[in-house]
Amino acid sequence: MDQSEFIINQITKSAGRKSLYHFTRARNLKGISTLDTLYSANRIDPMSSVQRRTDRRVIELNGHLFTINAHLRIANSLIDSSTTQLEFREYLDQHVFLWPTLRDVQAMINTYSRREPEESFVILKFDASSLLLNNFNSIKLSKYDSGSSPRYPNNCSYKKSPKMFLPLEAFGIIDDSLIPTKPSEIKEVLASDQLTNLTQYLQAVYCEHEKDVPERWKAFWEPHESANN
Question: What Pfam family is a match for this entry (predicted)?
């Protein structure tokens, strides 16, 4: 077993951490499944980070329409002095976001559903081990919810900057309160730029309506409520 396999085995050892989850809009599924790829916001629209996105944005890429999310508000007091709001959001937009537990991804869906109650969101479930192994050098880990403010930002014990993201290869090596040092501390998993060949990792598509799932991924469809079973 090499070092990369050892690290991944440590992260996915728990029964509750053998999958990774991504949430998106049902309207994005056709493009995602056809291209078999998840793109970062910056890859879809390099100009989308020049200022804070206060609303969702629809962009055409490779013949498909993709809706990218609005930026959630981050209090200025949470931004580390080594960076700026703009620089930090630009950094986030260079990544595809995944979450290690259903609870974490559903919390994100709840946040956006409150802002956009008319929108239909879906969850993509992937095999964690194979996805992490095949994308090992592009993966970073976060101990915190990076893209928004906690309820009481003035009580926050850390500052947001690119320093809060730990390269997967350094997991278990660097000991710092800003980064995850054990699997249970991993709150987010980020992949640089894009994730390709999604179908080989896909385990389920949790979606309210089966009709919203493209034909290519129909076999993976499961109703939203089964995600908790």
Answer: DUF7002
Instruction: Report yes or no: 149 and 159 within 8 Å, Cβ to Cβ.
Output: no
In the block, residue with structure tokens 């409520």: 225
Polymer length of the chain: 229
CA distances from 148 to 6, 35, 75, 110, 152 (A): 32, 29, 8, 13, 11
Residue 229 has pLDDT above 70, yes or no: no
∠204-19-48 over CA atoms, to 5°? 80
How many Cβ atoms sit within 10 Å of the Cβ of residue 42?
Answer: 19
Establish if 228 belongs to a structural domain. no
Q: Which domain holds residue 152?
A: 3-222
DSSP state, residue 183: G
Residue 229 lies in a domain: no
Collect all residues with Cβ–Cβ distance below 8 Å to 154 and sequence separation of at least 6: 77
| 56 phi and psi angles, rounded to 5 deg | -65, 160
Report how many domains make up the chain: 1
Is residue 227 one of the residues assigned to a domain? no
pTM, whole model, 2 decimals? 0.95
Helix ranges restricted to H, 101-145: 102-115, 128-134
The 10s digit of each residue's pLDDT in 165-216 is 999 999 999 888 999 999 999 999 999 999 999 999 999 999 998 999 999 9
